[in-house]
Amino acid sequence: MKILLVIDTYDTNNNGTSISAQRFAAVLREHGNEVKILTTGEPAPDKFALKEFKVPVFNDLIHSHGFQFAKVDLDIIREAVRWADVVHCMMPFILEAVTKHIADEMHKPSTAAFHIQPENMTSSVGLGKVEWVNNRFYETFNFLLYQHFTHIHVPSQFMADELIKRGYKAKIHVISNGIDPAFQYTKRPKEPQYEGKILIVMVGRLAQEKRQDVIINAVPLSKYADKIQLVFAGKGPKYNEYVKLGEKLPNPPQFVFLSKEELINLLSQTDLYIHASDMESEAISCIEAFATGLVPVIANSEVSATPQFALDGRSLFLPGSPKDLARSIDWWLDHPEEKQKMEKEYAEFAKRFNIDESVRQCEEMFREAIEEV
């Protein structure tokens, strides 16, 4: 198949949807498909490049989240759609809505993905927990884009339930975004900087909804506070705030931005992985962590899909509660034999999220859409 992926931001390593799109494209090509991207950025053989649409006032904030909007260019969009056998729209914005309209005009099959959870957007302006605001975004996304599709890909059953609850009518395909097979059970000796310390890691943007602040505030409440070294892998608008907040800890947190190989190396030395985010549509970073052989401790939030990965209640804590998180940390560190046993169970559990299988299921969705035209 000739598959066109439509996504405003593709060339970034600090945006989960963009990273998933890059992996998705690579594996689609491994399966023998031709893949091109309709997106912003520099021109390339596999890309139909659009200029950035700059949002007045908010553009710096948008960039801090590793994102930019695309400016609509009808000639480029028509050229891209004309090339494709199937068009897959990965975001719910103007670019994707216009592309869908042109695909329909040209009688080209198209599918959509729901990756951008409204709460991730509204949290940036302090409205992440205001239900009516988030509901309005779900309604707007449906009106603008999703009501026009017969097939929607979501990365978790949680997101499927959210769409069904809000009256989305398309056939919903629950398919994990999938993880790179390089993330597998790996244990390595600690580097000198971590020797004698308890290494606790979270991977994700330094953003309001990710709640790295809960982890920082939990450390002083742990009996192991003097030994804990936090490492946060990611960039984002909360960096300065979290650096200042972490100054009170015996071992101030480290903030790093890593390649895949560097991340695997870090996780292989880690003692415990924490995912404190209030809002997630899946959280691939959490799967990658337990795939390498880490017990995850996950915020049990009602607006997050990530609690689905907890094999039992010991891997859950009350969202937003440093006290309950400290309790969970101490329990796992007090029971090293049980932690070691569960590390192997989590690594085995992670095998079901292989990206190769995820891509195969998406290919089936594309074929369904093609047959309908």
Structure description:
Helix content is 40%, strand content 16%. With 373 residues, it is α/β, with parallel strands linked by helices. It has 2 domains: 2-178 and 354-372, Glycogen Phosphorylase B (Rossmann fold), CATH 3.40.50; 192-353, Glycogen Phosphorylase B (Rossmann fold). The strands form 3 sheets. It has a 7-stranded parallel beta sheet, with helices on both faces. Strand 8 (151-154), helix 7 (157-165) and strand 9 (171-174) form a beta-alpha-beta unit. Helix 1 (16-30) crosses helix 14 (355-372), helix 8 packs across helix 12 and helix 11 (284-291) crosses helix 13. The longest helix is centred in the last third of the chain and has 18 residues, at 355-372. It is globular. The model has no long low-confidence stretch (mean pLDDT 95).
Write the layout of secondary structure elements.
Layout: E1 2-6, H1 16-30, E2 34-40, E3 47-50, E4 52-53, H2 59-64, E5 69-70, H3 74-83, E6 86-89, H4 94-105, E7 110-113, H5 118-122, H6 131-144, E8 151-154, H7 157-165, E9 171-174, E10 198-203, H8 212-218, E11 228-233, H9 239-246, E12 254-256, H10 260-267, E13 272-275, H11 284-291, E14 296-299, E15 316-317, H12 322-334, H13 336-350, H14 355-372
Parallel strand pairs: 1-2, 1-6, 2-3, 6-7, 7-8, 8-9, 10-11, 10-13, 11-12, 13-14, 14-15
Antiparallel strand pairs: 4-5
